Amino acid sequence: MHEIGIANEILAAGMQEVARHPGSWLVRIGVRVGELSGVDRAALDFAFAALTKGTSLEAVRVEIETVARRARCRGCGLEFESQPWGAHCPGCGSLDNVLIAGDELDLRYIEVEEP
Amino acid sequence: MTVISMEKKVLNENQRIAAELRERFKKEGTLCLNLISSPGSGKTTLLERTLSGFTPQERVFVLTGDLQTENDAQRLARYGFPVQQITTGGVCHLDGRMIERALERWAGMTMDVLFIENVGNLVCPSSYDLGEEAKIVLLSVTEGEDKPLKYPSIFSKAELLVITKVDLLPHVPFDLEQARENARLVHPGIEIIEVSCATGAGMEDWRRWIAQRRAQEGSPMPAAVTV
């Protein structure tokens, strides 16, 4: 349950950026969460709600994009979605692959309203 | 309405600190290992057995994380090596800043090996880079052999899986081969060692693994050790 800390980091980064645009206020935050990032989406939603309740950020919408785990086979080069676990290449059956997506925990964008 | 692209890692600050720590460990020839498991898988016991095998001349240090109490540090301090407890309050993982702060107390001291015993948790510690050379995940045979499938994040990031308490295998319905297979399904390249801290079985494999990593790190090989 480290989502509170992560939500806090995201809100702080958003606020910091908003401060560079005097007079504007935050309306939306876009976040990218990979399946393997160790962050639970529901817990992150809850953390945002808990942190912003009763504050000026209460109305900020948070859009969470989830990213499935993807791998590239070192044998045949095929890229494939390997979820929820298990990484046998559907092309050649090899287990030798490299993770190419699914580990993300990114702040994608913020949306601000201007006066 | 204006959309401002940010495209940055949320744990940017942690990543920065971890990169600094990694740089420092590399420069000073310190092998830093980050031990992660569920509570009760045997991290502290494995460290006790491990510390008892080093000679007093070796510069081995331990940071151990828990939400509360100094119990683990007291257990580990008996072996004569510097140990610090990091009590996180309520935080479920260690982060780079906590390691950086703890190491300030050992400023100027040369470390050959630094063991970090993370907070008992298979989820959150996997998100925080501590600048370690390798993450090591422990799985005890009193847990389920499907843990790698249930918690793929840590099993895919760990370089080594240590299966602990193997002396209990006759008494528990743990399928060792299935556990290995599950771990390799999630992380094909993962190395696997099986140990029992009660009987000493497998401890040589574990020590050899550490010795090999130390050799790669450019530190001297450890002296012969006994279980």
Low-pLDDT residue spans of chain A = none
Query: What fraction strand of chain A?
Result: 25-35%
Largest interface: A-B, 38 and 31 residues
Largest sheet of chain A, in brief, is: 3 strands, mixed
How do the helices and strands follow one another from N- to C-terminus of chain B?
A: EHEHEHEHEEHHEHEH
Rg value of chain B: 18 Å
Oligomer: heterodimer
The residue ranges of chain B in which pLDDT falls below 50 over 5 or more consecutive positions are: 219-227
Relative helix content of chain B: 25-40%
Report the mean per-residue pLDDT of chain A as an integer. 90
Helices of chain B, by number, come to: 8
State the distance separating the first and last CA atoms of chain B: 66 Å
β-strand number of chain A: 6
Strand arrangement in the largest pleated sheet of chain B = 4-3-5-2-6-7-8
Mean pLDDT across residues of chain B: 93
Taking the alpha carbons of the first and last residues of chain A, their distance comes to 37 Å
**How many β strands of chain B by DSSP?**
8
Beta fraction of the residues of chain B? 15-25%
Number of helices of chain A: 2
Describe the fold and architecture:
- The complex is a heterodimer of chains A (115) and B (227).
- Chain A is α+β, with helices and mostly antiparallel strands.
- Chain A has helices spanning 3-18, 41-52; strands at 25-34, 61-67, 70-73, 79-81, 97-101, 105-113.
- In chain A, helix 1 (3-18) packs across helix 2.
- Chain B has helices spanning 12-28, 43-51, 71-77, 96-104, 147-150, 152-157, 176-186, 203-217; strands at 2-9, 31-36, 60-66, 83-87, 113-117, 134-140, 160-164, 191-194.
- In chain B, helix 7 links the parallel strand 7 and strand 8 (191-194).
- Chain A binds chain B through residues 1-2, 5-6, 9-10, 13-14, 17, 21, 24, 27, 31, 36-40, 69, 84-88, 95-97, 99, 105-114, and chain B through 1-13, 91-93, 123-124, 126-127, 148-149, 152-154, 156, 184-186, 188-189.
